[in-house]
């Protein structure tokens, strides 16, 4: 038995029941000991990845709450069932042990109507104040096809008082071409003393929408959770479904998925580096990087039929192959990228005015990063070397091997530098994939989904770890699809990293995180 | 500095030739402009982009029309920071319930003639997100739309094609 499961088993004995057929290991604990279980696992240096709830009232049971934890390469799910008789379902909050539970639990309360007992913040999250109070969309009794009748309401913002304190409210419609969200700063002079984010503007009811789709069509929706991460999201969904149906994906298809994921990573990192530099008024870099990114997009369109490679990954495999000519084309494009990118990195390093803006700006310390359980590029810039390609490895990463950068400065520069390192590493991976990609078929049929089963997958998208947890209902239909984009945890880190910085540095800090609003709001 | 200049000269001009205009996919409901307005519009168009609930795929392609390959500024298309300065609202969707008020207010802030372009399948009709408790569907459920650009997401050339419809109406000398 692995470390976390062992720790919980030995502390809880008969109170932690293992669910034999689930992947990863799922231990059911009595609901009143839910927080205690989290505490035990935190003592075993686990991170909280996600927390969510399900509504099993239709099958005669109550609501269930789940927490997914990770330590090293081990994932563990802790589950607690709430009695169906209780009038208002409740569970003990994990927020005193894990900070990210703060938003997960507000979300559970807002969308599922379950009370996290002991949670310090009763304000809704994602659900807006003008929604009807009893609108809990993730409950089975909620009719999602009907429009809601809305009323007036007021969100209670945190307030700061004192001489010279003022507030700046930004959004939801921002000045640039970006997604909507509201940021409220409290500042003294130029210095930000507090930032409060308010997200949820792009809530499209994705998790509920999944429940009205079939397993095959839902991959399209997964590919549109966050458009810039479409390949990694559809891969994560597909892998969750494959784990549920014990489907064996052909090797060539797995290698092609990795090829798509790494191309997506390079393209987005290029865009980010350009945009970060542009926020420091270094427009040269924006245009150079966006030119390189555009070259990749055009190649994707030519070779794979879509600029973002949307809908190219499906459960059981992929829909496009790569020809010998296409391989050559990608290889020569890599040479072109390599040459230009190296020159740009050199210019980045030599520009002292740029360095002045990116160094020691927006620092997320290693201690905070650990506490906030951040993932992906944000984590790797703050001393946490978490990367699903290594700790939850799957073909072809297991045979190729991935070098993961881990910087400790945690500032904007570190987040740029992680991207630089990753672009180079992804180019190496691409060359390796193209050289040794095995032949074979592209697709294997998945078995029919059995009733009452679960599936799980964690995939490293360009932002970080993406988690899907899916559950089938009585007829083998989609009963619940939990999506955890890296943004769901990393947004909290931006609030912390910005404290003490000056207001004009917010755009560059925000860009260096570049989290998805859509992936968070769902 | 010398390296920056070298890279600029080495790169040269990468801008594509004008893409093929007049895409039949793009639907125009009607753009009625005064002659006085047409005259003022001839070489400039200020655009305010609003994400009313998209998955951010359309945003990436709107970014792409600003890149050196598509370079929308050569047609006088300029993205502005405030709806007050905008002639055109470029809206991606579906309109989420939580963005409805913000979209209406942005629309109200735009000066007439308030040309609205709906971008993407979701902006045209709600796309994969449909009409639910959280998604109101296409942009025209909330504000009037003049031009529809379908696609998931539409390519940068498709988006420029949408703008071309406005230039047809005002006889933009650069694009026509």
Tell me what the structure shows.
The complex is a heterodimer of chains A (522) and B (176). With 522 residues, chain A is α+β, with helices and mostly antiparallel strands. Chain A has two domains: 115 residues, Beta Polymerase, domain 2, CATH 3.30.460.80; 316 residues, Cytochrome-c3 Hydrogenase, chain B. Chain A contains 18 helices and 15 strands. A five-stranded mixed β-sheet of chain A has the order 1-2-5-4-3. The mean pLDDT of chain A is 91. Chain B is an alpha/beta fold and 176 residues long. Chain B has one domain: Rossmann fold, CATH 3.40.50.12280. Chain B has six helices and six strands. In chain B, strands 1-6-5-4-2-3 form a six-stranded mixed β-sheet, sandwiched between helices. In chain B, helix 3 crosses helix 6. Chain B is globular. The model of chain B has no long low-confidence stretch (mean pLDDT 87). Chains A and B meet through helix 4, helix 8, helix 9 and helix 18 of A and helix 1, strand 2 and helix 3 of B.
Summarize the helices and strands and which ones pair or pack.
The complex is a heterodimer of chains A (522) and B (176).
Chain A: H1 3-12, E1 17-19, E2 25-30, H2 34-43, E3 47-55, E4 63-71, E5 74-81, E6 90-92, H3 101-112, E7 115-117, E8 165-170, E9 182-188, E10 191-198, H4 206-210, H5 218-222, H6 230-245, H7 251-279, H8 283-304, E11 313-314, E12 317-318, H9 324-350, H10 352-358, H11 366-371, H12 376-380, H13 388-391, H14 397-400, H15 412-436, E13 454-460, E14 465-472, E15 478-484, H16 487-497, H17 506-513, H18 517-521
Helix pairs in contact in A: 7-8, 7-15, 7-17, 8-9, 9-15, 15-17
Chain B: H1 2-11, E1 27-28, H2 35-41, E2 45-51, H3 57-65, E3 77-79, E4 88-92, H4 100-109, E5 115-119, H5 120-125, E6 147-149, H6 156-170
Parallel strand pairs in B: 2-3, 2-4, 4-5, 5-6
Antiparallel strand pairs in B: 1-6
């Amino acid at each position: 038995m692995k470390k976390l499961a062992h720790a919980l088993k030995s502390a809880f004995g008969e109170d932690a029941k293992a669910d034999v057929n689930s992947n990863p290991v799922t231990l059911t604990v009595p609901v009143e000991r839910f927080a205690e279980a989290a505490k035990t696992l935190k003592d075993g240096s686990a991170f909280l990845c996600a927390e969510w709830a399900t509504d099993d009232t239709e099958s005669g049971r109550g609501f269930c709450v789940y927490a997914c934890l990770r330590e090293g390469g081990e994932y563990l799910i802790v589950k607690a069932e709430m009695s169906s008789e209780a009038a208002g379902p409740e569970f003990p909050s994990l927020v005193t042990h894990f900070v990210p539970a703060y938003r997960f639990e507000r979300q559970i309360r807002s969308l599922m109507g379950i009370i996290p007992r002991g949670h310090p913040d009763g304000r809704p999250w994602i659900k807006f104040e003008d929604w009807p109070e009893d609108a809990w969309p993730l409950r089975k009794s909620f009719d999602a096809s009907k429009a809601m009748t809305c009323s007036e309401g007021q969100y209670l913002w945190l307030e700061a008082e004192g001489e010279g304190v003022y507030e700046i409210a930004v959004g939801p419609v921002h000045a640039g071409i970006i997604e909507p969200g509201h940021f409220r700063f409290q500042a003294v002079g130029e210095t930000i003393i507090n930032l409060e984010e308010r997200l949820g503007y792009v809530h499209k009811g994705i998790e509920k929408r999944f429940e009205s789709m079939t397993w095959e069509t839902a991959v399209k929706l997964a590919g549109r959770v966050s458009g810039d991460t479409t390949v990694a999201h559809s891969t994560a969904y597909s892998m969750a479904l494959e784990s549920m149906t014990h489907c064996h994906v052909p090797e060539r298809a797995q290698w092609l998925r990795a090829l798509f994921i790494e191309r997506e990573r390079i393209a987005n990192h290029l865009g980010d580096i350009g945009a970060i530099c542009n926020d420091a008024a270094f427009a040269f870099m924006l245009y150079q990087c966006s030119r390189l990114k555009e070259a990749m997009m055009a190649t994707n369109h030519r070779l794979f039929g879509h600029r973002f490679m949307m809908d190219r990954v499906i459960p059981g495999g992929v829909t496009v192959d790569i020809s010998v000519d296409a391989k050559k084309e990608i290889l020569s494009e890599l040479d072109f990228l390599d040459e230009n990118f190296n020159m740009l990195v050199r210019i980045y390093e030599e520009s002292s005015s740029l360095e002045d803006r990116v160094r020691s700006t927006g620092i997320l310390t290693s201690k905070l990063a650990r506490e906030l359980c951040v993932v992906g590029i944000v984590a790797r810039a703050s001393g946490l070397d978490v990367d699903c390609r290594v700790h939850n490895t799957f073909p072809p990463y297991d045979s190729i091997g991935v070098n993961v950068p881990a910087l400790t400065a945690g500032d904007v520069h570190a987040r740029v530098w992680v991207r630089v390192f990753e672009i180079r590493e992804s180019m190496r991976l691409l060359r390796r994939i193209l050289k040794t990609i095995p032949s074979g078929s592209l697709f294997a049929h998945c078995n029919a989904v059995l009733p009452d089963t679960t599936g799980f997958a964690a995939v490293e998208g360009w932002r970080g770890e993406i988690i899907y947890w899916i559950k089938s209902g009585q007829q083998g239909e989609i009963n619940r699809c939990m999506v955890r984009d890296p943004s769901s945890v990393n947004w909290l880190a931006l609030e912390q990293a910005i404290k003490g910085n000056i207001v004009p540095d917010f755009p560059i800090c925000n860009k260096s995180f570049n989290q998805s609003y859509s992936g968070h709001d769902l | 500095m010398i390296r920056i200049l070298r890279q600029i000269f080495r790169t040269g001009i990468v801008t594509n030739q004008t893409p093929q205009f007049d895409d039949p996919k793009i639907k125009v409901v009607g753009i009625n402009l005064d002659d006085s307005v047409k005259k003022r519009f001839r070489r400039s168009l200020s655009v305010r982009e609003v994400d009313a609930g998209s998955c951010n795929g359309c945003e990436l392609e709107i970014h792409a029309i600003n890149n050196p390959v598509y370079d929308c500024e050569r047609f006088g298309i300029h993205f502005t920071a405030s709806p007050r300065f905008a002639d055109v609202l470029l809206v991606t969707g579906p309109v989420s319930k939580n963005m409805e008020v913000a979209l209406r207010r942005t629309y109200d802030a735009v000066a007439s003639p308030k040309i609205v372009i709906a971008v993407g399948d979701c902006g045209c009709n709600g796309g994969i997100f449909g009409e639910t408790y959280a998604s109101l569907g296409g942009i025209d459920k909330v504000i009037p739309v003049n031009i529809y650009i379908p696609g998931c997401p539409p390519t940068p050339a498709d988006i420029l094609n949408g703008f071309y419809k406005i230039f047809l109406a005002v006889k933009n000398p650069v694009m026509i």
